[in-house]
């Protein structure tokens, strides 16, 4: 069925080269991993952010898209599914997902990720950890030369129950954070960002993270923490990176 689709090299480049990099990563990830020939129902996870927009666009171009049930990771992703004419499902109905596509803020050499720059980390982790195959789509800026905390300098996003934020901030400093702040809405909203789950987000900078699994476990053990943006322990199967020269690279 892929042969009926326009191939990526047949498409005109986008005006912003960074957008072209995101598109090539996402289209290639879908083309090479999506079960195109499936005739029965396929449950697909759709992540959040600006790169996964192109993955949803590509899946929406498939002629058998009526067979797919797409599980969102938040409000933006729900809109993406609807806008691309795909069937929307809920994780409560489909707790087992065949394949999920999502972006990342940083990817290390072992395919550990920092996610949550778009404030959707909890549902993103729920969907990714419920998927048999989890494919990351990103542009070249997201690759870390080695550890997490090198390319992404804004800190590890952590979703917390609102009433616990002050306590968690103190505890994060005890765990070694050099800076921890409650994410603010800025000019778009006075006060903190409120997630799709009605929680707050803390961004905690731990510098270069040599043991992301341990850091995740330590943060997850704090009272008030719902989830961390450290995606570790082999959760991601493969990453596609759009490069600045219009090509793509992979890591698995
Ligand atoms: O984790 C995320 C949202 O919570 C995004 O996937 C991450 O921020 C990457 O976004 P983009 O593709 O726009 O760079």
Automatic annotation (TrEMBL):
<dbReference type="GO" id="GO:0006014">
    <property type="term" value="P:D-ribose metabolic process"/>
</dbReference>
<keyword id="KW-0413">Isomerase</keyword>
<dbReference type="GO" id="GO:0009052">
    <property type="term" value="P:pentose-phosphate shunt, non-oxidative branch"/>
</dbReference>
<dbReference type="GO" id="GO:0005737">
    <property type="term" value="C:cytoplasm"/>
</dbReference>
<comment type="pathway">
    <text>Carbohydrate degradation; pentose phosphate pathway; D-ribose 5-phosphate from D-ribulose 5-phosphate (non-oxidative stage): step 1/1.</text>
</comment>
<comment type="similarity">
    <text>Belongs to the ribose 5-phosphate isomerase family.</text>
</comment>
<dbReference type="Pfam" id="PF06026">
    <property type="entry name" value="Rib_5-P_isom_A"/>
</dbReference>
<dbReference type="InterPro" id="IPR004788">
    <property type="entry name" value="Ribose5P_isomerase_type_A"/>
</dbReference>
<dbReference type="InterPro" id="IPR037171">
    <property type="entry name" value="NagB/RpiA_transferase-like"/>
</dbReference>
<protein>
    <recommendedName>
        <fullName>Ribose-5-phosphate isomerase</fullName>
        <ecNumber>5.3.1.6</ecNumber>
    </recommendedName>
</protein>
<dbReference type="GO" id="GO:0004751">
    <property type="term" value="F:ribose-5-phosphate isomerase activity"/>
</dbReference>
């Amino acid at each position: 069925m892929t042969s009926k689709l326009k191939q990526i090299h047949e498409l005109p480049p986008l005006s912003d080269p960074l957008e072209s990099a995101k598109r090539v990563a996402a289209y290639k990830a879908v083309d090479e991993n999506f079960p195109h020939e499936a005739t029965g129902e396929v449950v697909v996870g759709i992540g959040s952010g600006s790169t996964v927009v192109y993955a949803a666009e590509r899946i929406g171009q498939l002629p058998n898209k009526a067979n797919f049930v797409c599980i969102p990771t938040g409000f933006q992703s729900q809109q993406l599914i609807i806008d691309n004419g795909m069937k929307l499902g809920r994780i409560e109905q489909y707790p087992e997902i065949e394949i999920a596509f999502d972006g990342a803020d940083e990817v290390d050499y072992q395919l550990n990720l920092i996610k949550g720059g778009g404030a959707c980390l909890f549902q993103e982790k729920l969907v990714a950890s419920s998927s048999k195959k989890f494919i990351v789509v990103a542009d070249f800026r997201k690759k870390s030369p080695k550890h997490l905390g090198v390319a992404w300098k804004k800190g590890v996003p952590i979703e917390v129950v609102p009433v616990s934020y002050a306590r968690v901030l103190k505890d994060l400093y005890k765990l070694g954070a050099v800076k921890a702040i409650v994410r603010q809405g800025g000019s778009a909203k006075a006060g903190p960002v409120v997630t799709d789950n009605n929680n707050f987000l803390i961004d905690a900078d731990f510098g270069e993270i040599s043991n992301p699994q341990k850091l995740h476990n330590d943060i997850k053990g704090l009272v008030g923490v719902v989830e961390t943006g450290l995606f570790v322990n082999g959760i991601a199967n493969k990453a596609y990176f759009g490069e600045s020269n219009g090509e793509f690279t992979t890591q698995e």
